[in-house]
Amino acid sequence: MMGFTRFNSRQHRRKIIFLILFIAFIYFVSRRDSLYLLRPIWDKKPQPFNTYSFWPYVPAIESDKDYCRHYGWQQRQVGNRKSPRIIDATMISTEVSLFKLRLMETRDHVDMVIVVEADRSFDGTPKPHFPIFNETEIRPYMKDSQVLVYHNDAQYAHGHHSRSSTWHNHGDLILMSDVDEISSKETLQLAKVCSLPPILHLNMRDYLYSFEFPLNDNGYWRPKIVTFEATTTFGYNHIRASDELLLHAGWHCSWCFRSIQEYHIKMTGYSHNDRLTSSSQLLPSEIQRKICTGLDIYDMYPEAYTFTDLLRQLGPAPRATEYTHLPAYTTMLQNPEFRFLLPGFCERPLDMLVS
Length: 355
What we know:
alpha/beta; globular; beta-1,4-mannosylglycoprotein 4-beta-N-acetylglucosaminyltransferase activity; Glyco_trans_17; transferase; Glycosyl transferase
């Protein structure tokens, strides 16, 4: 009997050792995937926002005062003063076409555009020099009355600029978002008419590679409109700064590049370049395959906080079933420069295109 007990004990120890080794193997060999698959166990969903549903602005039917009441906000009392200026502040790396699209969508409401061309990647590596920003090329997509401020030093955007700065005044509305985060003209109209919370995050519909692949998630919240106060300093950031979130405020077109070269630049120089697990992920043919099928560029599982959401988001992104509400849609159809953002135009050239 004692021998049988010792045998069972040895078997039990072997099972424990095997289990420990198996867990260690999964952790070290597939640590990235394990963390994402098990996120609902070890991570908590961020604190929910106070959300505002988006209402259409129809001045012929209701007054501005009644329109603002839908949100629980007050109509702006401008008196003899003009409505607050909207200043669009963004950074650009290579996404010139997206920047033009952004300008076309917002030009009727934005008064000043501040664009910083990043001279380094997100991990601090000097960026290869390309002739990216050309004001002569950009100006046709803006109104004559708009002011354009350009800097080619990324440190400018991240620095905290004092209240004595020449380009922002007390009460100005700073639209703080990356170049691939495009606010709708309706959102900016709302900002002109109604008194917003001091910091209002904008929930944007997520797309991958183009407007052909809307992601099956809850949207993107990082863009925000900040009301500038004369007693504060200002610096570009991409963090959560309030609990207020306006729904259906625009579009976030992630990884929407015109060339394979741009994908390669971002994959190797981005702050998440540790997501690369194989050199084959950088092959042009592999990048092209994923652009046309809606698969994740890094072969990663979705970031989900419940197993229900995880299962819902697994696999390639679904193809869009309608294209009626997109930024500057007519221009995308008519101008070949923007067709890469539409269905049926997923093929990308190898090298960057300079329009």
